[in-house]
Description:
Blueprint: E1 17-22, E2 25-30, H1 41-56, E3 62-67, H2 78-84, H3 89-108, E4 113-117, E5 120-122, H4 124-131, E6 134-138, E7 142-144, H5 147-150, H6 158-166, H7 168-177, E8 181-182, H8 183-189, E9 194-196, H9 201-213, H10 217-231, H11 235-248, H12 252-262
Helix pairs in contact: 1-3, 3-4, 4-6, 6-7, 10-11
Amino acid sequence: MTHATSPSEPSQQNMPLVNVLYDGILTLTLNRPEARNALSPEITSALIHVLEQAQRDPAVRAVVITGAGRAFCAGLDLRWAAENWKTGRSERLPFQFNRNTYFEAMARGNIPFIAALHGATLGGGLETASAAHIRVADETTYFGLPEGTRGIFIGGGGSVRVARLIGFARMQDMMLTGRVLKADEAERYGIVQYVVPKGQQLAKAKELALKICKNAPLSNFAITNSLPRIQDMGYDDGLFFERMVAEYTRSPESIQRLHQFLDKTAPRVRPTE
């Protein structure tokens, strides 16, 4: 992991994944612009390695993931798949499980993730975005699940995560018909929380990440890990688990923050202009 002394990224042009840590924010850039950042074993392995490091580094308070060039991520590297999937299913399993490993590290790790999206966000790219906790898209972003037309099926948790964002029926429509959603549609359907003008997605994602970095880490962990699990529970179990987590997050830091509010030294909650 590269620790930077300024927001500018050090030279890592030849790496499949560029990573820069500055001011508590780890920025990960998928770096295969010539292939629209299609997911290859090299990118997947690099993501797993960096995320394992990040989970153990207290200096990392939030992660922003984005893509180099004209797209966030066009999905699975189909050229690689066509060349390597000629053998039996067992040959494909290690790559498939590696993909799931980094998706889970994003969705269920101890660090909040913000995805900064632009251009093509397709297949595995949409699955990657859906594993993030907040998604920011610029107005050029478009979303699709073309696996049906390619004769394959999603394999990065999309059947769970994407379906929870947009609903089973819309997801099935996208997969069966090849329907493509533009950024404004994606916001209406719940895929993204923010839509910004062209080219401003990374700046907005970092702005949000800075806000997240100011939260208590224990609260961030509870928000990103407890809320998804509560959605899987029944009504009574969800309420019980909520009370347990509320007790768990009480700490000396939370008491200090409450006193800062009472002393009027903490920021007030106000609507943005």
